[in-house]
Amino acid sequence: MIKTSAIPVGKISLLLAILIWLGLLLVDLVRIFGVINNLDSGISEEVTWGLEILFFFFTYFLYRHVFWKSKQVDFVTLLWRGASTGLFAAIAGLLTELIFFALGDSKIGKDPFLQTIFYHLNFAWSSVFLISTALLWKHLILYQKTKKVVKQWQVFELSMLAALFFIFFNHNNFDYSFLFALVILLVISILLSANLKWIPYLNFKEKWKTILFLFLILLSATLLFYRILAYGNEERFQINLTDNLFLMALFGFVMVYGLFSFLVTLFNLPTSSVFEQKLKEALNFQKLSQSIQPEENEEHVLDILVESCISASFSDGAWIALNPTEQLKIQNPLRFIEPSTLTELTALLPAEFQNWTLTPTNELQPYSIRLKHPSYKSALLVPLLVNKTLLAQIVLVKEVKEGFNKEMVNIIGTFARQASISVENHRLLNQAISSERYQEELKIAQRVQKALLPLQLDHPSSFDICAYSNTADEVGGDYYDTYQVDEHRFVLIIGDVSGKGTSAAFHMAQMKGVFQSLIQMGLGPADFMIKANSALSKCLERNHFITASIFELNTLSQQFRHARAGHIPTLWYSAHAHTAEFIAVDGLGLGIVRNQNYENHVQEVTGNYQAGDFLILLTDGILESRNDVGEQFGYTRLKELVEANSQMPPLQLQKAIIDSLHQFVGGDGMIDDDYSLVVVKFK
Amino acid sequence: MLQIEKVREGDALILQLIGEVDASNSVLLDQSIQESLQPEITVVVIDGQKLKYISSAGLGVFMSYVDDFSERGIHFSIFGLTQQVGEVFKILGLDRVIAIVPDKSTAIAFRK
User: For chain B, what is the domain count?
Assistant: First the structure.
């Protein structure tokens, strides 16, 4: 198997070009030897021409390869390479002339062989310079490739290829056909020279370097051209390598494009700063739009904004005045301004500058004002609006009067708007992140709170019990619980914390703690309320209270003891009487009177229950739920509902109550309060 | 919606509550009482004739002032409550702590 490896085009081309040049030299030396010794060397001129063409070809391939390799190299470096090649060729030419001038009329000076060798050397340098420069021009012309430009270049290359072989028809005579062909090639060169789109991309410094290098290339080309013309006029050489259409056209092309580039770059110098400025503004704009990443802050945007504004307006100084009500701090609000100057300048600004409460109705534009300050004569105020409030104002100052033209004001206005958008986006993003976090926290709270309500309700076989609780927000303040005191005694409690949401949820948790700890002491309902009031008084906020209802059921004696602390009265359905009544007992909410006096505000009642009786413990969310005309669900509706459905088992009755409540509120109506329900049915 | 109308009659401050007091606007009620408490006031009266509904959060506001008022020697009373709202006060037992009086003249009669 044959391994295909990359062919070193450059090295092969270089080697072949050198070999061909040596061949060319040898052929011409042999011919001269023949002429001098009146011998027919038998070598025709076509051999020389053929070798010359081959030499051009390989030089072309060599440099095409060089340029292909240096695609990423910038223009100035490429131009420097061209200029250095040219200088080398020109200086070598001059040195040759100097040597022959020094030798004068001496024998060596007149030696035809030596002269021929130097002639060939000069020919080689000139060709290398011209071909490499032409390829450099190609690179520049095709910088912004369009179909049209590529076509133009192809036409030129084909014409040059034809020019290479022109010598076989024309036999190196300087006749009209030569002139005609040269003119055509020059015209194409001129047309190509209109493609100078690479120049605007140079910055000011690069333009100066470009001008210098182009000048050197033009100078070298001119010197070499004169040398070659001088050779052409002498009849010393048996064969003329340089009076060649290809070389002449190349000279033309190199000179024309070089000259055009030189002049255009020169005339572009004064406006290049404008171009650079626009480029910088575009970059600043981009920077402002991308400036805020979630981890960065608003000060960063203000920093970029100030820098952008200064550079867009050529300001001599600037500072950022922040709205004191906004929680913003900036490391260095002053730019090129002394703190003492700041005080002076602030005093000169209009009164509304200090008025941060001003709520602008429409978008504010930057506006310029005159200053009566020894150093600064004009100022531009740039308001930065975020969510219709003034976040900051940037003050740009200049040492000249009327220093801010319309374009500057416009671009700065655009910068400010872009910065506002960035800040707004940043705030929205942060809000979204934190609200998502709160949602997560609330979900946890919800889970924790659900766990506070008992999953299993302690009860004996002598009664059935079920409970339901719903919260208006993620967490709520309703509470119910059960506790088995001994074999026959069971305690039920239902409670409601004032308010709703998170604060209510915390207090509800406290209530659970109070119940679970006090009830183990074997307290009766009224005593429990008194102790609970005392305990809660120490931990409830002043404007919060808890209402509760507690029952101690004795399944042996079928009696209950009951106390109520400001809570909604419990509905007791008597199977014997077929009626339901709310148990009337006085009792003040827990945490309302926070002293021993509470004892006077709580009562205890006892009752006897029978099989088939119901106890319905509930919270005010049920009774206070309102329909679309503002009517409350109320006591009567609940009483009638229970009386009508007294045959139902507890779970079914509970469901009936909740369904009826939803129906009452209306399909879309939200019950805007926590509500809970505990249903007990005695067997 | 809650609207609070404040009237001064000598050293009596009368706050008329119009609409509903719930968890969202109970803060407003609190602020309103706080603001109007000039040192010379000896009687604070809530006019509940146009109070349609009061939630536990609203009741909490009144409750929180009870001790404060008695320490400062201010007589606090409520009159004109609708049957429904009056019931809420009664169930909670607040009527034992705050004077619920039949009309305005009784309420401001406590002026010194």
Answer: 1
- Domain of B55, in residue numbers: 2-108
Contacts of A587 in chain B (CB under 8 A): 93
Q: What is the mean pLDDT of residues A428-452?
A: 87
Q: Which residues of A touch B92 (CB under 8 A)?
A: 545, 547, 566, 588-589, 592
Q: What ipTM was reported for this prediction?
A: 0.92
Per-residue b/e over A104-139, b at no fewer than 16 CB within 10 Å? eeeeeeeebeebbebbbbbbbbbbbbbbbbbbbbbb
Q: What is the pLDDT of residues A108-118, one digit of tens each?
A: 777 788 888 88
Read off the pLDDT of residues A548-570 as tens digits, 9 standing for 90 and up: 999 999 999 999 999 999 999 99
Regarding the domain with residue range A453-682, which homologous superfamily does it belong to in the CATH classification? PPM-type phosphatase domain (3.60.40.10)
Looking at A2-11, A310-319, A508-517, which range is the least confident one? A2-11
Tell me what pLDDT residue A291 has. Answer: 62
**CATH number (domain holding residue B79):** 3.30.750.24
CA–CA–CA angle B44, B57, B52 (5° rounding): 70
Residue A589 has its nearest CB partner, among B30, B52, B92, at B92
Residue of A nearest to B54 (CA): A624
For residue A198, the 8-state DSSP code is: T
* Distance (Å) from the alpha carbon of B91 to chain A's nearest alpha carbon: 5
Q: How many CB pairs under 8 A join A and B?
A: 67
Give the dihedral of Cα atoms A92, A93, A98, A99; nearest 10 deg.
70
- When pLDDT is cut at 50, 70 and 90, the band that residue A1 belongs to is very low
pTM confidence score: 0.56
Q: Is the pLDDT of residue A239 over 80?
A: no
- The superfamily CATH assigns to domain A298-431 is GAF domain (3.30.450.40)
Q: Which three-class secondary structure state does DSSP give residue A197? A: coil
Q: How many angstroms away from the CA of A566 is the closest CA of chain B?
A: 4
Residue A602, classed as helix, strand or coil, is: strand
